[in-house]
Design brief:
9-stranded mixed β-sheet; globular; 4-stranded mixed β-sheet; 549 residues
């Protein structure tokens, strides 16, 4: 079986991850310098009497990009920006279900290892060439051969690719257990842009992206900016109604200072304490769920914690609302499982173990522990019930959370000792399972393959083993239908809620902040922060503008 530890996930080292900061800067005039002037938009100085002031020429800062070549780039900004330029065979909707994009129809064979995809016809690359099955074959084979390609873990699940005709391609998977359509979201590349793969890979400094997406590159100045304009030949419905320029900026460290002096109109922040940055500013804020889960992990190989009632008792003792309020600035969404809230269209019922000290104590008594001599529980030999909570000492916020959890467990009669370790020692303790409980976070990959945490046949941090869970996880990673996956997931949730190898405290949220009213049809998604950018426009009532002037 595939080594799932290589999936896209990271065990967070820092509690506050201010990785992504996006700004929309007000443009002066009807166009952004360097952008294609093929379409006319209202600029910030174009005021329509008795109506509104509208800005559709958008400027967003990014960090310095080493290359825009998706075969060799490892930059997060490239990953997000190029979703506006390139497209995959499928895309993820807001329930993280694969939806066809460049694929028209598809079918698996009986073995589940061969997938035949019929491509959407009439799709053109930005240079006017037709999108064909040769491009799919080129993309997959090129990514497999490029060692540092960020999409290599996905394409390596594919054994081979064959063109059936210009509009049909056949993929053969290494295993039917790794054939999920959610892993076919990587960008398709034009096979004719360069004469061969070697030339494509070597095009680093002078690379200009050519995709099939809603935006085409109008201009590119390496180390300075990339300007995107509407793709007037777009195949997928409404065309973009704005221009977007991404400029390299060195002021990512303190974006709200720029916002305060009106250089910025829109800011995306990951910071868990972002309210402290704009608490005294007149802004509009929208929070959305991230892919970062804060969890309490149990070592189920530990004799005490191998008992599910013990794990449940600890969960009941933890007050997540107080954690959010006292430590995490209330920037979290409670989830009923480890998976993304509302995953596959299921209902998120929130915390299944809402804080209940008496429920925790009742479970401990059922396990044979006694609190007859006072508030603390002891076993039959009189030994104090004690657990150790391991936490990363490099994270002040997690240490604060651990201290609060310690006090909550003590209230339930459980002696809790905190072990704060440096990052390397913390990782080693989890890897060797030399812990009782650990407090940590995971940033999950887009496809939400969580077998690395739950499957019995691979190493997982908790030591959890359940063949029924293995079976359900496998169904979810096969080429099953949406209904089949949802049915398997609903069954999986029931088992995980009962057995509780991990307790998901909450999912962190990110924030979108603007001073003008942002009009858009779609909300951002953690894996597609510019989703819906094609209809973004910033609107301010004229009377408000006049009052400022």
């Amino acid at each position: 079986m595939k080594d799932f530890m290589k999936n896209f996930f990271t065990l967070n080292r820092k509690t506050v991850a201010a990785v992504l900061v996006l700004f929309v800067i007000a443009s002066i005039g009807a166009y952004v310098a360097g952008c294609d002037k093929g379409m006319e938009f209202l600029g910030v100085d174009d005021i329509v009497p008795n109506e509104q002031q509208v800005n559709t020429a958008l400027v967003l800062p990014i960090e310095r990009v080493r290359t825009w070549n998706p075969l060799v780039s490892a930059d997060e900004d490239v990953y997000f920006v190029e979703k506006l330029i390139y497209e995959g065979l499928f895309r993820l909707d807001d329930q993280l279900v694969a939806q066809p994009l460049l694929a028209e129809s598809w079918e698996f064979d009986e073995s589940g290892t061969k997938l035949t995809i019929r491509l959407k016809q009439g799709v053109l690359w930005h240079d006017g060439e037709k999108f064909t099955s040769e491009d799919v074959k080129f993309t997959i084979e090129s990514m497999k051969k490029t060692a540092l390609c960020m999409y290599k873990p996905q394409v390596d699940l594919i054994r081979s690719v064959r063109t059936v005709d210009n509009n049909t391609v056949e993929l053969t998977y290494v295993s039917a257990d790794d054939s999920s359509l959610e892993k076919l979201t990587f960008p398709m590349l034009p096979s004719r842009q360069y004469k061969n793969l070697t030339a494509f890979v070597k095009a680093v400094d002078d690379f200009t992206p050519v995709g099939t997406g809603r935006y085409t590159v109008s201009s590119l100045k390496k180390g300075e900016e990339i300007c995107l304009g509407p793709n007037l030949s777009y195949h997928g419905g409404e065309k973009a109604a704005n221009t977007v320029t991404f400029k390299v900026t060195s002021d990512h460290a303190n974006p709200v200072n720029l916002f305060a002096i009106s250089d910025l109109n829109l800011v995306f922040l990951k910071d868990i304490d972002r309210e402290t940055m704009y608490s005294n500013k007149d802004v509009k804020v929208m929070n959305f769920t991230s892919n970062e889960a804060e969890i309490l992990g149990y070592n189920v190989t530990n004799p005490i914690l191998s008992q599910k009632k013990m794990r449940q008792a600890i969960a009941y003792a933890v007050d997540i609302d107080r954690l959010l309020d006292h430590v995490y600035y209330n920037n979290g969404v409670k989830s009923d499982s480890l998976y993304y809230p509302g995953y596959l269209g299921t209902e998120n019922e929130g915390d299944p173990y809402s804080a209940d000290t008496e429920a925790a104590r009742a479970l401990l008594r059922e396990l044979g522990y006694s609190d007859a001599e006072g508030d603390m529980f002891r076993d039959a030999s009189g030994k104090l019930l004690t657990v150790t909570l391991t936490v990363n000492a490099d994270s002040t916020m997690r240490q604060d959370a651990a201290n609060l959890i310690q006090s909550q467990l003590l209230k339930a009669g459980i002696d809790c000792q905190i072990r704060a370790l440096d990052w390397e020692s913390y990782q080693a303790a989890i890897a060797s399972r030399t812990y009782d409980l650990f407090l940590g976070g995971y940033s999950f990959g887009d496809s939400y393959d969580l077998r690395f945490l739950l499957h019995s046949t691979v190493w997982n941090p908790s030591g959890y083993v359940n063949p029924r869970v293995d079976e359900l996880l496998t169904i979810m990673e096969q080429g099953a239908s949406r209904e089949e996956k949802k049915e398997a997931y609903e069954k999986l949730k029931i088992v995980l809620r009962e057995e509780l190898p991990y307790y998901c405290l909450f999912y962190k949220t990110y924030g979108r902040m603007s001073d003008w009213e942002l009009q858009t049809e779609e909300h951002p998604l953690f894996c597609d922060v510019y989703r819906g950018a094609e209809d973004w426009r910033l609107v301010k009532p004229v009377d408000l503008v006049d009052s400022v002037e």
